[in-house]
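Feature request, filed as a ticket because there's no other form

It would be nice if the structure record came with a short human-readable summary line next to the tokens. Right now we just get the raw output. Example of a typical job, pasted below so the devs can see what we mean:
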Amino acid sequence: MPPFVAAGDAPTWAERGRDAAGIALIALLLGIPMIGLTTVDQGGALRVLTRWPLLAAFVAAVFCGRLLLRHALDLLKRRRRGRPGAAAEDEESGRRGVRMIGWAGWLAFGAALVLPLVFSDNRYVVDTATTVLIYVMLGWGLNVVVGLAGLLDLGHAAFYAVGAYAYALLSTQFGWGFWAALPVAGLVAAVFGLALGWPCLRLRGDYLAIVTLGFGEIVRVALVNWTDFSGGPNGISSIPRPSFFGLPFAPSGDAPTFAASFGLEFSPMHRIIFLYYVILALSLLTNALVSRLRRLPAGRAWEAMREDEIACRALGMNVTNVKLSAFALGAMLGGLAGVFFAARQGFISPESFTFNESAIILSIVVLGGMGSQLGVVLASLVLVLIPEIGRDFSEYRMLLFGAAMILIMVWRPGGILSRREPTLRHAAAEGGHA
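Raw output as currently delivered:
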């Protein structure tokens, strides 16, 4: 790709329209079975009904959203690359692009904040949004290992399980609370990440994937068979749920409760909404941490190793520490998500941490575009919402889910956001070369 973008090389609205039309076509193909059709039971017979207006609104929203996103990304790209003789124009275009993406981010943040309040009487919507945020956090953790460091990990569910079981054991056996156990469980998961990373220092590609797959299965089999420690197949139940600064979400009694303290009528939705905000806060902290680390020497070392490990060694980079730091951070974030999962469910068992879970998390990273933080969010929405929307089709649900995945990867083989810009780019001299 050339270091400068000439005036004629800037994408036109016609090109952006063609790109948005292609994405809208994918949305149409995916939306016909998921949104345009629904099934109802009429007299014991299954009948298929159509919802074409809803489908048309969905496709139109995808088209407009992609068009605006492409425009904002093009403006931002022009600012980062610059071009000779037009620095002021490029700077202003870049500022407009940054503002558009910033406003879109704040709009999404605002929507996430008010979602449980708007749907305060709909537990299904809040629970589904909470599940999406859990997978977003898991995807961001694995994105450090796979997307940034370029290390193929097929056993990320093992760290998810380590965090969940660490909290379950600390809370049920030693009486630890959620907030006290959260950093400790994350640290335990990071130690397991180092234990996986150390023997894998000389492995790359398929060999590394096989070892991580084996590690994930070792953890699962140990949880199934070590009955005295993990409860075996029966799992661990009666796991305490987090409270609001010591105020439990329970009916009014002798002890102060959340509802009584704020003068509210008790509702089970209080705890559901609180858990949603907890995982939202954890996800935002995860995003801030990863985004900050990507601009530090550690993050730049991950990306450099992903591009060419041999060149990094030749330059004197300590590849051992780089790999271990990626494994440790990814494992810690997975462990923190596991802590929340155990606290939310109140019960865990080895069946929740199978290879299928690792495959879903890896699919989120690959489908969203490896290395892209926003892509992980979009892929989590796709992979969680498509099966939920397809529940009406019962036994055909996973068939439609697989077909949707194939279509997306055929049309976007690099992921939903495959054109991720480098975290840092050498600024071009205004009248010279980069």
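Something like this underneath would help us a lot:
The longest strand covers residues 37-42.
Residues 1-118+396-434 form one domain.
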